[in-house]
Every structure is written in structure tokens, then in C-alpha cells.
## 1
Amino acid sequence: MEYNFRAIEKKWQESWTRNSVYKVNTDPSLPKYYVLDMFPYPSGAGLHVGHPLGYIASDIFSRHKRLKGFNVLHPMGYDSFGLPAEQYAIEHGIPPAVSTAKNISTFRQQLDKIGFCYDWSREVQTSDAGYYKWTQWIFLQLFGSWYNRKTQKTESIDGLEKIFSTAGNAAHECPGDRKLVFSAEEWSAYSYKEQQEILMQYRVAYCGYGEVNWCEALGTVLANDEVINGVSERGGFPVVRKKLRQWYLRITEYADRLVSGLDTVDFSESMKEMQTNWIGKSYGAEIDFKLVSGELKDGHVLKVYTTRPDTIFGVDFMVIAPEHELVHQITTSGQQAAVDEYLAYVNSRSERERMAEKKITGTFTGAYAVNPFDGREIPVWISEYVLAGYGTGAIMGVPCGDERDHKFANYFNIPITNIIGSYYDGVEANATKDAMLENSGFLNGIVMRDAGAIVIARLEEMGIGQRRVNYKMRDAAFSRQRYWGEPFPIIWKDGVAIPLPESELPLMLPHLDDLRPGPEGEGPLANVPNWKEHGGGVREVNTMPGYAGSSWYFLRYMDPQNDSAFCSREASDYWNQVDLYIGGTEHAVGHLLYSRMWTKALFDLGYLGFDEPYKRLVNQGKIGGDSRLVYRVRGTNTFVSAGLKDGYEADELHADVNMVNGFELDTEAFIKWKPDFDGAQFILENGKYICGSRLEKMSKRYFNVVNPDDIVERYGADTFRMYEMFLGPVEQDKPWDTKGIEGVHRFLKKVWRLFVDEEKGKVLVTDAEPTAAEWKALYRMIKKIDEDTERFSFNTAVSTFMIGANELSDLKCHKKQVLEKFAVSLAAYAPHMAEELWQILGKEGSVLNSPWPAVEEQYLVETSKVYPVAINGKTRTELSLSLDATQHQVEELVLADQTVQKWLEGKAPKKVIYVKNKMINLVV
RNA sequence: GCGCAUGUGGCGUAAUUGGUAGCCGCGCCAGACUUAGGAUCUGGUGUUUCACGACGUGGGGGUUCGAGUCCCUCCAUGCGCACCA
């Protein structure tokens, strides 16, 4: 009766399914705990051993919380809309729905083998009509809302219409077109269409023209977080800036709350940092400079944004972005040719080139801007280093205080004004705020730090500037010119977007065989006239981006079958925030920000009772591959062992890690691996072919992928689970190393032998009363497992298990009372074995339904302890002391000790440091 | 360049609060049982030294009776951001 993990795991997995052991219900009489994994995109590649790391951690934590008496919600689902399935369909002719379903099924099979405690009755798939009905519904709520900056809340657009008709928009600056101002009378005089266009500029989900990231290869626009270094995140295709009509989410209105909300949640510092940087809040001023130019008449101003209004007397030039609207108006005829040439150059550079090589370029426009305080005329330049999308797309150049401005001035020989005295050395700019201002008119003698406020006050007085907060974050592009996503529940009639009534949701995605793009950069849905034309208008043919469905999925799990609401208030009030969210760092600025924003909007609109979705976020590390390398002597079919390769001119090739035992290559398998290697010869060292190794990403390309199925087949799911945890802290990146798994496997076999005599094939469990030593070993282990698990230190918990098993094994403890509690404590980490042991002990039902074993502290209490006694930190002797001795008693005992007296030579110590349970130190 | 994180045996790692550094596992060494072992079990294993001892947590400095832990500084690695005015 050896430890037959294959039979045991199969048996219990079937039993769990049959008895719906993991089904949970809303039950207000029980405390709840919500453990969530970032749901996967079901790709066709299948899982490697790195993927389940976070799932295993969350599974252990969920089971542990359940043993501790919580009603645990631990669901799983699929982010099943998205680009790759559509690309795959175009390349292979398999409809996205079909390939997605197949991938999900593979995925599920792999997951099931690991023995997770997901409540699959709550599974969601974002591409299900029953799910995306509510994605569309939430979109309509966002479309039907605006962000009231006065109340800092998402509010109904109907309320805004009422405000407009009674008071115009004086109190509510238009977030789209800031110059738009109208009175109540003017509002009433606008046509219906004009009114709708204005409202559109206030909506939280809105449609507008704007610069977007257009990816030609993917045939769609992308959000900023989907573009990395000028190329698409998916596929690495070039991305260009393009003006298009697109849907957006007005996430910028939530910027402040997205930053301040981080104080209320438990995310890692680096994660908070990333989000804060992405949002990029900065404080400064907007200043109007009067423009003078040969071609221009009065009244034109150049609006710049600066975070350093205190440096205004140091302005030596202005720079506007090449795309700035004033470029053409202010350029003088003398500079026209130079400007045209420069603009042509800028247009010829792709976004990618621009980012890759940062050259100092630019040209003078011929125009001047007037410094409002000293009347200096300042040349206005164009340069690509100024970004059109940030601030006003124009800056004031202060070379002595800004590195980039300094380089620019030097490059173009613009004279530099020094306003910071000795702080500026003439060689490098100095961005200090500590300098006392010079050459700065009315600011002379004032420290820079204090001057900003004075300048702003003066500007406001003069009506040519004001305090301004800016964000790096842009509104999020929300439409995609693709097929495999949620259709927008919008109909366009005479240029006005009409929301579909709720009763017509879901708006089903029609089946399409042909996924070619539609005309004029529209998506494939534009090719389907009888779908597109509807009710006297045309449907929106774009679809929603991948992050639409994932922005709220954690809510749907709470109430997955509800057909009359995305999630009932009853369910969301009970399950509330996600207590623990586990996933990778790659979603730091995409999914995490969007879902936080959606939660805030739904909260404002009264659909939720909380406005931060995730109470605690843990980012699991990535598991890398440990590749194996072989060395082929150039031009031959001979391979040289790693230790001898330096004597040859050899090329490095990857060998499949599955053909290598440790570092020793299975040459037979290698020869059979690829036709190329047929008849290969090997130059061996000590009779073995030793491979080289390298740590790199786990990828098919490097033949270093380890499939969890293989590991589970060979060692069992329980061993796999515990080994993944044993590898190191969950949050740390680490390489996979199959070798060490034996140790964990041995542990489980050792546990098995506490219960069963393998040779004689009988159960060893006895009813004898445990000894104090046995209780102590058990309780020490249980107490520490609990602590380790609660503080997410799963690797030390596994070590603790091993120590416990070693101790009980040494004590030959086969006693039922001890083993019962042992089995329960194992239920989170090795659930299959725990169930089997539970059954061996003659218990009914699932071990998961028993409470976490109470620790009887009296067995852990030590009455006396041997203390090292040190003089000035140096250990001199040891003393056995009663643990409940007072400090005074300790001192007396120590001083009475002969060895101590000898060392002290009759003198009294200055201080006696008594470190509880650790040591006693005498300071002399 | 800026920001954040991390540096401990041959390897993965451990070390409540500053309190005997190296738990647990891998690997390695020795042994037991075996026809056999890539099975199981026992013991050993930071460096150095015959030994007593000395040294030892990336380098240097500091605080302290006492530092892997706190402070300063330098170095290395990883991640994120990268013309955001």
C-alpha cells in the first residue's frame, strides 16, 4: 500500500466534482472572504509550470481561510474576447468562438489536474452573451453619465441637461472643449443635434475625434498601455499617431481619485508607484504670452504650461509642438520654407524612430512671444521634443533651470539668461528650487520655492494665467476596429448617438465568416449591412477593447446567473471588496486602473457600496526557464560536452530540457529528436555529455518549457503544489528547477508512512494517548503553518511541514489524535492526500469542513530555558532559568552564578539586558 | 538619466522586536540494507585550521554591550518609466 498519488488524486477530484464541495452561497450569517485570481486569456499555447504559481497560492489561501471558518468566494473564468483569437481566425479560418472554446477546454483540463477549489458554477466568460449583456449595460451607464468636478462624482447626464437649461455651463467647464461657454438661453437656442454634441463632450464614455495609436498591421487603434516603445504590445507591430473618430473613457476625470485611492489599499509600493507615475499628476501654471509676428495681428496668445512659474524671468525661447494649431498662423514668410522642411522631416519619422534616437532638432518660426513682466521678446521655435498631447503643447524654455532646454539653447546658440546666480555653472542646467532669484524683476531676492505662488497670483490678477494641474494619463481609447469584442449598444441617427434601450440587450455579436476589415478603417461588422442598418439609423460597428469585459468581472462572480442586474446589491454588499487579488505585474497600468475606475463610477451611481475593488493585491513572480545548451562543432554533426567546448569552434544550440537529466544529455533521445541530429557524434567528458545552461524566459523557442501535466503525472498534484510554493517567496521571480522536487515528494511519502505501513499494507493508526513530546511537535507545526500561511509565506510553511513530519516520524507517532489534526493542517497544501488520510482515519465527508485545529498552548509552554549569559555581548556561560522569573529574580540568579562572578571580578555590571527567551547580557 | 526593489553556503532559501547567522530542501561525502539502485534509511556538509581558534550575510564607514536586520556611502543585478516642461 504505497503512496499511489495517481489513484488518490483522481478519486478525490471526481468526488469533489460529484459532491459540489466547492460551491459557495451568499450567507450573511458567515464572515466572507473573497480570493480572486486574475482570470486568464485562453491562449492556444497551454500552461507551463509558471502559470499556476499564483493559482496555487490563492488556492492554498482560500482553503486555509475556509478551514478558519470563512465563507470563501474563489471563482475562475476567462477573458475570452480579444485580438489573438481573431488573428488566429484570419490565419487559420477557425472562428474565434470555436478556437476560444477549445482553448478553454484545454485550459480547464490542465487546471483540474492540479486540484483547485474553484466554484466552477460561478465561471464567467467575457464573450458569453449573458456576460457581455452587462458589459454593454455598464457602458450605457457610463455613456449616460458625466463627471461632476464640483461633487467629484459620476452623475447622470440628465441632471447636467437641467443645469444647462437653467444656468448654462458657467459652473461646469467643458472637459472636451475648454473654450466652450454658453448661457441657459444659448443652450435652449441650440438645435437638438448641437445640444447632443455638447453633451457628448461631457459624457464619461464619449465619442470624439482625437489622436489615437493606430496599428496598421492589427487594423485597429490601441490604448496607450497597449503600446510599448512605439510598437503594439501584441505582435510588436508599428504604431502611428492618427486622427480618428473614436470612443473614449474619460478616465482623466478620475485621476485624482485613482491616486488618492491607493492610500486605502494594500498594493506593493512598486505597484502604487507605477500607477502614480502613469497618472503623472503635476502642479503648475498655465501662462498666456502675447504673440508678435510679421503675419499676425493683435490678440493671439501662446498658452504654455509650466511647473516652474518661478523661472519666468529666465525664459529665453518658446517651443511649440510640430502639431500645434498655431504653427501655420505664426510662421513668418521668411521662415516658411524652413518650417515646412522641418514639418516634413518630423512627419517622416515614425513614433518608434523618434523614441529610439533622441536628437535635438527644431526650427525658428520667426514669431516672438512677449514676456508679460519685462516685455522681452522671446523667439518661438518648433521642436519635436515638445509633445502635442501634454499640457498645452507649448513650453517656455528656461535653459539655466532645465536640462532639455539647456541642450536646446546650446545647440541653437540661443543666449542663456542666468536667474539663479552661482547655482548655474554655465555648463549644466540646475533644476534647484533653493536658489535666490536674480535678474528676475520683482522676484529678485526671493527663494524660488516661494516665488511660484507669487507669480501665479500676479498672473491671475492680470488675467493672463492661472494655477493648473496636469496629468500624463490620457483618456482611454475604448473602440477597436475588430470583430471579436462586445458590440456597442449604440445607433447613430443623423450624427447623434442613441443608446439602445436596456430591453434590447444583449446586442448580440453576429456570426461572421469573413473577418476582413470594413471600408474606411472600420471593423468587419461594417461589412454586414443587415446588421449595421437598424431602426432608421446605423449601428456603431466598432467593438469594445479587451479591457471592457475584464474591468468588472470580479463583480459578476458574486452573482453570475443574475439576468436582471449585473450583480445584485445584496450580493455585492455581502461579498464586497476582493480581499486578496493575485496576478502578474503586467496589468499594473491597464486592467487595474480601468477596473478601479469602473468601480468608482458604479459606486458613484449607487450600484455598489465600495469604490475600490481590490483590498489587497499580491503580484506573483514569474517562473523562468533553465535552458540546456549543446555545442556543435562548426560544420560538423559532432557535439562537444560543455567542459571541453573551449577547445573547439562550436555553435551553441538549445536542447530540449526534457531530454536532459540534470546537466547530462540523453544522447539517444537527442539523436532521435530532429532529423538534423541523425547520426550525431558526441565528444564526452567522463563518459557523459554535459550541457551548458542559461536562465531565460520559459518559451517553446528555447525548448525549456516544463509542462505541469508532466510533473503532475510523475509526482502528483500535491507534490507539484507544494514544490511550487517551496521554490521561494510567491512574489519573487525564480527559475524552474525540477531536481528539487524529490525532496517535497519524499516529505509526502513520509507523511503517508505515518498513517500506513507500506510493506505490510496495513493502517498504523492507533488510539493510544499522545505523549507531550508528540503534542508539542504537532502544535508547534500547526501554529507556525497558520502564521506562515496568513502572512503569505508559503515557502516557509512547506519547510515547517517537513520539520513536523520529521519530528513525528522520529517519534514514530502513529496516534490518531495527532494524525487527525495533522491531516486537517495539510488540507490547504496537499488537498488530495489530506482527504485520503481523513478517510483512512475513518472520518466522514471532506476534511475541508473541519475547523482549523486549535492549538493547546500548554504543550508549547516551556517552564525553563537555558539562557546564554554574555558579558558585553560575548557569551561566557549558560544558565537554566525559570521562564516566569521576574527581571529582578533573573538578575539575582545571574549575579549569584560563580562563573559570572569570576568574570565580573567583584564589580557590579552597569546594566543587565534581559532579552526575553533569548539571552542575558551584562554590560560592564 | 529618474524611480522602485534585491544582494546570505556549490544551489533554492530561512532567521518575530537589533539578541547564538545558515532552518528546510537540493547537491555532495560517508555508512546501513540490498543481486541491483536514479529505492529507502542513518550520519556529515559556510570558509580556514591537525587542533584550540579565527573569519564569515556585495564593498567601505557609522550607531550599539550586540547589526543579515538601523543610518551613511559606494558597487552589482533585476524591474518600471523614459523628452510629461
## 2
Amino acid sequence: MSETTNSPAAESAGGAPTETTAPHRYTAALAADIEARWQEFWEAEGTYEAPNPKGDLAGDAGSVARPKKFIMDMFPYPSGAGLHVGHPLGFIATDVYARHQRMTGHNVLHTLGFDAFGLPAEQYAVQTGTHPRVSTEANIVNMRRQLRRLGLGHDGRRSIETIDPAYYKWTQWIFLQVFNSWYDPEADAARPIDTLVAQFEAGDRPTPDGRAWSGLSPLERANILGEYRLAYASDAPVNWCPGLGTVLANEEVTADGRSERGNYPVFKAKLRQWNMRITAYADRLLNGLDALDWPEAIKLQQRNWIGRSEGARVDFPVGDDKITVFTTRQDTLFGATYMVLAPEHPLVAGADNGNGTGSIVPDAWPEGTHDVWTGGHATPGDAVAAYRKQAASKSDVERQAEAKDKTGVFTGAFATNPVSGEQVPVFIADYVLMGYGTGAIMAVPAHDTRDFAFARAFELPMRCVVEPSDDRGTDPSTWDDAFASYDAKIVNSSGADISLDGLGVTEAKAKITEWLADQGIGEGTVNFRLRDWLFSRQRYWGEPFPIVYDEDGVAHALPESMLPLELPEVEDYSPRTFDPDDADTQPETPLSRNEDWVNVDLDLGDGIKRYRRETNTMPNWAGSCWYEMRYLDPHNSDALVDPEIEQYWMGPRDGQPAGGVDLYVGGAEHAVLHLLYARFWSQVLHDLGHVSSSEPFHKLYNQGMIQAFVYRDSRGIAVPAAEVEERDGGYYYQGEKVSRVLGKMGKSLKNAVTPDEICAEYGADTLRLYEMAMGPLDVSRPWDTRAVVGQYRLLQRLWRNVVDEATGEVTVVDGEPDEATLRALHKAIDGVSQDMANLRFNTAIAKVTELNNHLTKAGTPVPRTVAEQLVLLIAPLAPHIAEELWRKLGHTDSVVHADFPVADPAYVVDETVTCVVQIKGKVKARLEVAPSISDADLEATALAEPAVVAALDGAGIRKVIVRAPKLVNIVPA
RNA sequence: GCCCGGUUGGUGGAACUGGUCAGACACGCGGCUCUCAAACAGCCGUGCCCUUGGGCAUGUGGGUUCGAAUCCCACACCGGGCACCA
């Protein structure tokens, strides 16, 4: 998830002021001492442990009775050599929020685990030549050390690692739940596969070829059930990435046809792979978004990814066969002057596999075939075979690059336009994708930009059937582009049985759809862009599938008693990778090299038999699809989570109809990967009755990125940012002028700053404050090490306001604070409370700073009550110094569970407010008035003001706008 | 190409639903105090331009309004997502 491929964990960068005349001054050394002591205290006391209502983590009933808050971060990958300061931004934010929630009476669950399977961890292992388990565990140890140093208040008992067999036992278990279920359209939900088998057995549901279920072989039955299971293996075109040696999900392939990891080319290859039938949930995944408190941008991305479009399926007869197309413009059916199939379409398969021609491809070109249609081939079979071969060898990158130039070839076949009766030629072209719709389109060149380009290239006829609303006329041969607007009238669309002429697009769609359905040659339908989730990888470092194959090749689920199926320890874990550009390669699973493990004798209920294990592993998303549930009940060996515990923390409630985590903070890069997959698993588990929540994350918040300046020399090579000097408005490295741009922080750009360095120089509380003060949480901003000192100074002034630097004694005094201090205090409490609740930590810090500056400026000893409330205010942000001061102020309990201050409304408003008096929007006078002044009194006072009278200079008044108590605006006549 | 965001001092950023002279808080910078000196700390100043007083300022140009950083339109630039999806 949040990647950590960067920056060595450099120890102490030094630079802390060492000599001081004041032995109790708040220095980096003192901060380090305070922080270490309190971190030990918290750990020993279990300060952050949140009680469950039952089970091994059950605890204090009073705490359980409080309102709960489940606050989560997207958990990190332990790859690379540690964290840079960008990584903990979200962790600190959730920690501050969680601490505030704890202090306002909530039972807060906050912990952090590690997403440790998958490509990054494995690549790091391969690079360093260590076994992934060894390097991953070492990385986890290092990251835990770094995170502990930040003082994050996590319930350590609940931390999980996805590579722990006790954890992935349940990942495998969930896979089996998915495997052993099917999507029942009547229930609009997943149901156990047994319910489907029962329907087949009883004859309520016919088998595909009509034979009785009992008459089918085990393999035949398995194949039929495979068509229904929510996890299934199938031969389908998949994204094959030779450079990584594995196949990838659509979500892991970038827009330009490369792997998200490693940026290698991706090819389409037909391989037998495991898939998750996420498409069955397309509508529910789409509709479920409405109830979620997520950023609209993320919801929009998911909606676009799911890509629901309403249209129609229409059959076009071709000899004895028919081509079924999906279209969203069934209203333009009369304008369909040719058809296009995807190169992989089954109706043209066979042309290139030695079985003669495909089913619709004739032996010879029809009389009068246009030269440009044949591609220079002697027969349609040759042409189709050649084009299919060429398309298959093209990487997605090449296909993208050539997107503008339409290519294709005539199949030699003609189809019948079902409304006009016209014979239209059938082409194959790679601008039609097998994976979308039916892999075939009706082409309406006059009204579709792609069809227009293709028709121009192949000199195909166009017919205008939607009257252009501009002045281009109705002859498409004179047009520069297609007329694709929806806001127009249908023309030229009358046949023997139906006419659409004169109708608007919407009415025409409805009419033709109904007619098609009546004729039995089409129907209105909904199509999704979303495709099934490719779930297997040819990698070592992942969860093994709990699946074995018998001698017939039938897949069997391992029984729960055999879980976890542990990943075998092997010497040779490297994936077989290839020349990244070589499409003619085949994946090889590392686990398959291990014959002893692959071949196994098991008793699956009918005696001991020999089986072969599945040797693919699960993708790295598997472990992160459900981890929120395991945090709740991490040691349960009987269930993935106890239902009562799940209900307590995640169950549906007021305002959260689908349940879920109260706050989930992480980067926006997971909009359609992790966040979609996790929702899918959550809905399946909900359908099957395992959890009460149907959505995993009620509120989602995307934190921004911490960026850093990248300095490059004249060759464009990044130079170490720490050694660049700024002078005369330019930047210099070793005397050479370098350029500066804002980019990501990372080792490769030589601009990484580690939390260890900052902690060593200033302490963790300063780092926490700085990260929170930099700006709003959801906005990206550049790191500036020089500016960190500002928050360090805040803590020093805070310390000095409470503690004598020479003696270490508390300097606060008893007695009532003065009026101005009380107002400053309560305004701060009021503002900070609101800011905390709304994740506006930057302004919360500004308000704390203001209060602290007020006390500093007063120059007198701080009243005890004010000091205590100030310490409580800053406690969520800077917990270590707060604990230390709290203790020094005489408290023996931890500040973590103290009550957050509550503002007294009497002091939140000022005694008098400044009211401006404007004339036509220009300020002419200022009045000091009581905040409670009425509009009428204020107006009277304002009009009586000498400066106003003078400015009006006897002019009449047209209008007076009064906004008591702050503004009066006079509009002269 | 389509869809989302965004653009405020030298810098990061404030400004609740349009309502005090926009610039809180912090960095940086300048000055002063303390000091033998420095560091630390404290105090003062710091949007721009004309050196009274004023004028101009929230990417640019229009508009709505008594009043616009905030609402509307157009444009420019930056960032992100999708991209031959029928």
C-alpha cells in the first residue's frame, strides 16, 4: 500500500545544540529522553489497548460502553530500507485524531499492521539476494522501530502481518468462501455453491446441454460450476508481463499499456488463470458508493472504472450464424453500414490454427471486393489469420501508440442490418476490444468518431441518420468529423416495419429497443466496463491457493482443517522473468519447481488420492482486502472475526447504513485497486453471513503527498538535495548551477529525509507538529527541513511557560487568570476542538501557538489552570511533552485518557467587537460595540457616527445593510 | 480529447455558509535588546508601488452584488484520473 522503497535509515544527523547554561532546557536531548521514557510507559501500561466486548481482548466494561471509533491507516509495505518523512504523514494524522477522540470519551481502536506479501517485497529480496521472508521481517523490525519513535498510539496486540500463517489462513479461508459460492441473481447476493448444485440435481435448473446432472462426469460438473463460482479458473486473454514474469490485473496496467510496477510492456496472452467474478457485483459496487462518506473524486473514479452504460444488444444475421453487438446508440441502427469484430472474436477464430477458415470467413473474396479491404491477401482466410497474428503480437503500448491510425481487414462475410435489411460488410479491427461488450460493434460512421475514421480509411459508405444541429448539412461525405451529439432529431430511419424519423434520440432509443425485443432480435441491456479481477500471479511471495487438482484436472478446495496451507520454504524463489519485449513467452510459477510440495496424497473424503497443488499465488491485494476485520479479533482461531466483536466495531448504525471503519486515511492511488477489491470481498462476506457490515470503510480521507525539491545538474542527473546551496536566487551543487523542480521524495532522486534524522535533531513531537502544521492534510506540499525549527521553538516556549529551565521546577501559580487570558484560552479551546474534529490540524496548531504566544508575551507566571488546559490542548499533537508536563504539574494519571478541555461560551466571544461602517463598500468608520447589539441599535449608532455623517455629506440614504455586530454598509442615494 | 481538482506575500499556508484595511500561524529576511563576542532568548518590522497621504493587490479578462479570494462566464497555467469502452 503506501510504499516505502526509499531512503536509508540514516542515524542521527546531529546538529542539536549540545551546550546550554540551562540544564532543564527543552533540547533534542531532553526530548529524546522524555520520548523514550513515555514510550516505555505506554507500552508497559498498555495505554492504547482498546477493549473488545468479549474474547481474549475483552476489557473494562465502562470503556466498551462508550461510543466506539475505529480509526485506520492504509497499512504499509515493509519493502526497502525504511521510511522517509513523507510516509508517516497519514499515520501521524490518524494518531492525532485518535488521541482527540480518546480524550472526548470514545473507545478508540487504532493499530497498524504490515502488508508484506507481494511484488515490492519480493523484488527487494531478489535485489538484495536474501529470502523474502528474511528481508521482509527485517524490514518490518526496522519500520516498527521507526514508527515507535514517533509515539504513535497503537494497540500493539492487534497488529497483524499478512505473511503470518495465522493471518493468511483466513485469507485462504475467504478465498474458499468465494470459490464455494455463486451469484444468485434472484437474491442479488452470493449464496453457497451447494444451493446451485441442489437446483441442478433437482432439475430446477437445466444443464447447458440438457443432460441430467447425475449423468455428467465430475469434470463436466466442475466445468459447469466454474461458470458460476465467484472464484473461477478460465482461459481468457490476460495481461502478460514478461519483464515481471507474471500476469497482472487490469487495474495494475497503466493507461499506456505498461505494468504499474516496473513500467514493463504488457501483452495480451491467453492463459488459464484464476479470476474473481467482481463483475457480478458491478451494480452493487456502484450503488453502494452513495452511502459512503468518501471524497467525490474517488467515488467518481470508481464509478468511471465500473463504467455502467445503458444500451441494447442487437443481433445481425450472418448466414446461419449471427453477430451480437452491444451499442449505446441503438437509435442510429439505420446508419450502421458495416460491422467490426475484435480480432480475438470466436466467429473468426480457427482462421490461423490450421483448421481452415473461421466460421464466418468464406474461402474466397466476394465478387468486387475493394482492394483496400483485403490487406493484399489472396483469400479472406489468409487476411484474417495474418491480421489476428499481428494483433496478438502487438503490446498494449504499440496498440495505444497506433490508436489514431485505424487498421483492419475485411472478413469476406456480410451481415444483414435487421432494420434496413441491407447487406453490410464485416471487418476485424483492433479498435474493437474483445473484453468490452460483446467484442463486436455495428459501425455507424456518420455518428461515431472512431467508425468515421475507419470508414474514411477503408472507403466505406456513411449514412446520416441524426440530423446535424450545426450547419454541416446531411451529406457525411463532406464532413470533417462525425456528428455524435445526442441533442438532435432522427432522420433517414424508416424501414418496412418501423420508422424512427422525427424522434429525438431518447424516444428513438426507447422505440427501437422495444421493437427489437418484440422481434426477438435484441433487448435493452446494461454493460459495464469493469472486468473480472485476475487473481493469480506467477510469483513466490504470496499466499498459496488452497486448491488441489485431481487426475482429471478437477479443482478441489482444501477443507478448512488443512488451513493454513503454508508457503513452502524454498531456495529458489526468484520469478522466471523474460526479455520485457518478448511476447512469445510463457509464465512459470516458482512453486511448480518444487515437486515434493506440488504432488501430495490427501484424503478429501473419498480415500487417499494423489493430487497436484495449484502453484500460482494470490496477488498482493489479497491480504489487504479484509485486514480491517482482523484488527478487531486478531487471535481468533475459530473465525476470521467473532460476529459480536465485528458488530461492535463495524456494524451498521445511524448515518452508517452499511457499517464500516469510522475513518480510513491513505493515499488516493488506491481508488480503483485496494478500495474496490476490499469493498467486493466485504460484500461477499456480508452476503454469506460472516459479517454485519457490507462496506469496509465508511469514511475515507486522502492525505496529500509530501513532496520534495529535486535538483538536477546540466545532464539532468539528480544531485544530493542536502548539499545544494542557494544564492542569488539560483541553486548550486559543488559550484555548478543546478535546476530545481518539485517532485516526489525518494532515494533515487537523492532528496529523501528520514524521520530518524529529524527526531535526532529535534525530537518526535517536533516532527509530528511540523508534519501536521505544514498545511491541510489533503493537500500535497513540499518538505522544508529549515522550517521544522518553528515547531521546535513552539515546544520550547511551551516548556518555558511551565518549567524553570534552571531548576526544572514548575513555575505555574495558583489563582485566577486575567480576563484576556481566559478569553484567549477559551477561544483556543473552541477553535482547536472544531479543528481536531474536522482533521484541520494545521489551524489547530496555529491556535495553540497563539495561546502560547499570549502567555509568553504576558511575561508573568502562568496560572495553573491555564497551563493544564494548554497541555491538554496540545496532547494529541505532541503527546510526549504533554505527558511530561502533565506529570510535572502533579498528575499521576496519563494525559492520554484525560478529558479534553471544553470551551466556556462566555469567554469565546469578545467583550466588544469592532464593527466597520462602510459607505458603498468603503470603510469610513469603526465602532466598538457589544457582540449582542441589535441591528436597529447598530444602524442608529452607525448613522450617528460623526465620520459617517461627514462622509455622507448630506446625501440621502437609499439603503442600509446591517449585519450585526460586524458590519454596516450604507448605500447613498 | 474527456472528466475531476487547483492557482493567495520571498516560502508553506489563514480567511466559518460572499461581509472588518486579505495575508492568522510559521519559515525566511531586516532592525533592536541581552552578550566581551556569538549562540540561545526576547522585542519590533516585513504584500507591492509612489517616501504626507494615498494608490494597487488573491493566475488573466469580463460579469452578478451595497459588498467577491469566496458566486457565474471565458481564457491561461499547474496537478491528477480516464482514454479506440461502441
